[in-house]
What does this fold into?
Amino acid sequence: MKKYLCVFLLVLAAASNLPAQTTASSNKAAATTDPGKPRILLAYELADKNLDPWRAFFRTELDSAGYALEEVEAARLSATTLSNYDLIVIYGAVMAFTFKEPMRDWLNTKPKLAGGKVALFVTANRWFLRKYNDQLLGLLRQADAIIVDAVSTATKALSDDEKRRLVRAFVEKLPR
It folds into this structure.
């Protein structure tokens, strides 16, 4: 049913000459209709005004690099079939003044990552960057994921252009 609804919405958007709304469902439909593009899942902590620009940088750079992209928030990852993707990019972020870490919580559920390719990207404005990065890497190793790259960076002093270049360099190293 969801598949038909997604196709209907894409056809409706094309017919009305309006851009299709970017959602997990529409991205998944796009990923399945272009078999030539590597399928990437961008798994991220949550929708948040401080994290959304990073997601936009990933969206732009992955699209420019020719990947079919689907984005899924950590809270919805348990309903996602991970084996549908060639690579999972995990975007973890230390959240200021909170102990919420949705990505770590999801990895603690022991998702089926064994043999799957995973790239980790962790950001933090200040403290706990190394600790959170090491926790996520440890959980990925326990899951027997194939870690193709891992980047962590303190972001407090970075301009938007520097953040964009950091994401671009990360995407350029991803396997095809």
Q: What stands out?
A: Confidence is low (pLDDT under 50) at residues 1-32. Residues 1-33 form one domain. The CA atoms of residues 125 and 158 lie 9 Å apart. The first helix runs from residue 2 to 15.
